[in-house]
Amino acid sequence: MPTHYNGTEEEIRALNAFIKLMRAAESLESRLAQRGCLAELTPSQFGVMEALYHLGSMCQSELAHKILKSSGNLTLVIDNLERQGYVVRKRDPNDRRFITVHLTDAGRRKVESVLPCQVKAIVDEFAVLTPEEQETLGRLCKKLGKRERVLKEGEKK
Fold first, then answer.
1. 71-92 pLDDT, tens per residue?
2. Is residue 15 part of a domain?
3. pTM assigned to the model
4. Residues 51 and 92 in one domain
5. For residues 48 and 111, what is the distance between their CA atoms, to the nearest angstrom?
6. Distance between CA atoms of 114 and 93, rounded to whole angstroms?
7. Percent helix / strand / coil, the chain, rounded to 5
8. CA–CA dist 131, 96 (Å, integer)
9. 151 assigned to some structural domain
10. Is residue 148 part of a domain?
11. Do 73 and 93 share a domain, yes or no?
12. Residue 15 — φ and ψ, nearest 5°?
């Protein structure tokens, strides 16, 4: 459904692209959830665990940046993962203000048990696009996602 906003051609084009992007993302996330690969985990919980699994332990603000969530939102996600025994917080002995989030053995086993199914589900969903279209989509999403950094770099010139 296109926008009903009565604006300029540029505004309507941008709004229509935005609506399509958001609907596609929501639809994809919904279909992935229906497959049940993540079991009782939310996408945010899986994102935290997957980041810790592949990148190693990190502080909460770094983790929030990696999975594109606010620190406040991430606190609740980590609280729930900690309650389930999948992660643990550890204070730095030299600076007790600094807390690092670590994946537990149970968390590692959980990621390893759900990751293959989730990867297969994503591959299946993206099969509607050709390999070239997937590459193009990836480049366009990266360009849109990095816009702030590109603008800041442009201001330096």
1. 888 999 999 999 999 999 998 8
2. yes
3. 0.81
4. yes
5. 10
6. 34
7. 70, 10, 25
8. 48
9. no
10. no
11. yes
12. -65, -40
Task: Say how far apart CA 48 and CA 101 lie, in whole Å.
Answer: 10
- Structure tokens, 34: 């229906």
106 in a structural domain: yes
C-alpha angle 76-138-12 in degrees, rounded to nearest 5: 85
Residue 89 gets the label, from left (phi > 0), alpha (psi -120 to 50) or beta, of beta
* pLDDT (tens digit per residue) in 20-66: 999 999 999 999 999 999 989 999 999 999 999 999 999 988 998 88
Domain that holds residue 60: 41-112
Burial of 60-71, coded b for 16+ CB within 10 Å and e otherwise, reads: beebbebbebee
Number of domain units in the chain:
2
